[in-house]
Design a protein that fits this description.
Layout: E1 26-29, E2 34-37, E3 49-51, E4 60-65, E5 68-73, E6 75-80, E7 83-88, E8 91-96, E9 99-103, E10 108-111, E11 114-119, E12 122-126, E13 131-133, E14 146-149, E15 152-154, E16 167-169, E17 172-177, E18 180-182, E19 189-191, E20 194-199, E21 202-204, E22 213-219, E23 227-230, E24 233-237, E25 247-253, E26 259-262, E27 265-269, E28 271-276, E29 282-284, E30 287-289, E31 293-298, H1 311-317, H2 324-329, H3 331-334, E32 348-350, E33 353-355, E34 361-362, H4 365-369, E35 371-373, E36 376-378, H5 380-383, E37 385-387, E38 392-395, H6 400-404
Length: about 425
Amino acid sequence: MEINPLEGRRVRFLNVIEELSAPGEWYLDRESKKLYIYPYPGFDEQSIITFNPRHKNMGSVFKLYNTKQISFKNIEFANVGTKVFDIEKSSNISVENCKISDILETVLQAKESTYISIIGNTVKDTSSSVISIEGGDTANLIKANNYISDNDISRFALDSRICNPAVQIFGYGTTVRRNKIYDTPHMAIGISGMGVTIEYNEIYNVCNETADAGAIYSGQYPHLQENVIRYNYFHDIRNRTGLGFSVNTVYFDDLGGSFDVYSNIFYNVEQGSLVGGGRSNRFWSNAFIDCDTSVVIDSRGAKTENYEDNRAYVNLYWSPYRSELWKKEFPLLYSIMEDEPKLPKYNKIIKNAYINTASEILYDEAASLTEHSGNITLTTEEAGFWDYENHNFSLRENSKIYQKIEGFNLPKASEIGIQSNPGV
């Protein structure tokens, strides 16, 4: 490179590797895509690199567009005034074992992206939501294969206090597994997508400043399919506001649904689930322990004069539910408009265990339209938990639940939450 400055003028060189002369200085080689750092004494492969950009006009710390095969590992982000990761139309991006705190905007937003892995991170004290992720091809049922696993997420949505969950899911094909999510004013997970699996998570102490809310919330999307909530441990989720609405652990609002909810542990929650007039929601093999109510299904859609004036219908209309592919895969959905769409049909509550918990409540038309059978009510002693006092709800071999419900299955306590060797 040849530089010919004017005589007597100053010259400033930026990002020149030859000028690295003091600990803390760095150089970015854009061609080889490597970051070189002049380390402080004691720096080694296990040391953490900290970024703390504060300027809101930056947009994000990392903007990834049409990018692939990039990993961020063992980095600490703190006091950031923007998004940390803004990912669009990218694939095979991973964020692993990072410590992230005091972020003013959404920590990670991914749009139209696939094979995004967010694994083993600790995130706390954020002003807004933590992860917003979208990808896959819903119309053609091609999954994004995005994974959010083994993260510890707490004290989020501290400024924008409602509708800013730890994880908001859009698109088709995201798995949320083995995370610990807690301490927030509103919901933990929002689901507006399909092909979603929520499993082996521990979720507690959420919805602390709201009512008519859900720790896991999905609403007004009658076309969602292939969504599963299983093997999770939900506890200590209650209405702390004094307002006269329930706080629900799993809430399918305003004709939303088509979820399979099975083999979960609900302990000390106000209401295990509320189905707000939706259809094809199936609950089985769940344990409700010391809860006020297990599952409630109402018939709010039947009270709507014109279904087509409902927001749920608008979402249905704009979905590809009438395509040939969807007709083959989801025949009940394909014919919904000819099948009394306002009624809560095809819901099931079967083979659940209620321990010191009220059984299911079915309102109006839901009472005759819901299949509910094989559910049992027991005392704590009859349930045969491994260690009830210390909240280990694994079942002993002589549990009466096994005797009364064939095939009943709960996760072991050791399987739930963050694992010592995170990953997917």
